[in-house]
Amino acid sequence: MKNFHPTGNCPVRDVLSRLGDKWSMLVLITLSANGTMRFSDIHKTIADVSQRMLTVTLRTLESDGLIERKVYAEVPPRVEYCLTERGSSLIPHIQGLVDWALQQMSGIMKSRVLHTP
Amino acid sequence: MKNFHPTGNCPVRDVLSRLGDKWSMLVLITLSANGTMRFSDIHKTIADVSQRMLTVTLRTLESDGLIERKVYAEVPPRVEYCLTERGSSLIPHIQGLVDWALQQMSGIMKSRVLHTP
DNA sequence: AACGATAGTTACATCCATGTAAGTTCCTTA
DNA sequence: TAAGGAACTTACATGGATGTAACTATCGTT
After folding, report:
1. What is the C-alpha separation between A99 and B26, in angstroms, rounded?
2. pLDDT, tens digit, for every residue of B6-43?
3. Among candidates B26, B4, B8, which has minimal Cα distance to B17?
4. What is the spatial distance between Cα A97 and Cα A19, in angstroms, rounded to a whole number?
5. Which positions on strand D lie below 7 Å from a protein C-beta?
6. Strand partners, A38
7. Which pTM value belongs to this model?
8. Gap from B74 CA to C15 C1', in Å?
9. Rounded Cα–Cα distance for residues A44 and B73 (Å)
10. Residues around strand D, C-beta < 7 Å
């Protein structure tokens, strides 16, 4: 347990807590699957995210250097997002989690029912 | 309710959202590193979790079948926790995320500073 | 002149995860 | 007789994450 420091501020916890929010992993997987996308494209793909939270999520991911934001000086505006190299390096790990969840979810749902009669 | 609850629709999101809370991954990694542990042992290892949240987290993990809870009829009580097979199968994926975070966190911190002048 | 399109921003409201503090149980030991 | 211990449980408080709705800018099109 030398990686997770139980006391004080842990940078690893900090980094991981960003991915644990409601939309970040979903956005990253979406960009990985589709390549470069406009704001409206992402919004259509993840239909139930609010405009505000999509903006907030994208800004946070950009701030951490996981995605890149390109603004084109056009009217109406055009903004494109894509994964950075750092963002791409994270994808296999998220995908690993998703695959695990897909394999296990049936059993997990059954387990939940047993534990809440 | 005007909108569907997102985790109500997608089982994968539901399962992953459980792992995204503040303590679940930490508890799983701790159990993986130390094997069977008592409640108080986990609490000592993860010093800054409140008693209540440790209880809540352990119950949730148990309900999903990721850890096993063994109660011994003694006074004072003794309760032991360990990973189930399902919980163990998740560890490599969490560890992959942790390793990634360790490799990237320095660069991420720098990126954050650049994006918040 | 009004409208639509895109990608936001702002102010405000609400919910839920988490925290705090105290109470509970039952036996053992001083 | 009372304190101590493990593992909770309950009631209440709080803050941060998320949601809602309205507003913005600009230009070409109707």
Report:
1. 21
2. 444 788 899 999 999 999 999 999 999 999 999 999 99
3. B8
4. 12
5. 4-11, 17-22, 25-28
6. A80
7. 0.93
8. 40
9. 55
10. A 21-23, 48-53, 56, 75-77; B 2-3, 6, 38-40, 51-52, 55, 58-59, 69, 71, 75-79
| Distant-in-sequence, close-in-space partners of B66: CB < 8 Å, separation ≥ 6 | B28, B83, B84, B86, B87, B90
Distance, in Å, from the CA atom of A94 to the CA atom of A5, rounded to the nearest integer, reads 23
Residue A101: enclosing H or E segment and its boundaries? helix A85-115
Interface touch B102/A17, C-beta < 8 Å: no
Strand partners for B6 = none
Minimal Cα–Cα distance from B42 to chain A, Å?
A: 11
The DSSP H or E segment spanning A33 is helix A24-34
* Tokens found for residue B117: 């002048």
Tell me the two tokens of residue A71: 């603004």
Rounded CA-CA distance A62/B108 in Å is 10
Place of tokens 């084109």: A72
How many Å does it take to go from CA A75 to C1' C6? 8
CA angle B96, B98, B102 (to 5 degrees): 115
pLDDT in tens, A57-86: 999 999 999 999 999 999 999 999 999 999
User: Is residue A35 left, alpha or beta, with left meaning phi > 0 and alpha meaning psi from -120 to 50?
Assistant: left
Question: Helices marked H in chain B — which ranges?
Answer: 6-9, 11-19, 24-34, 39-45, 51-63, 85-115
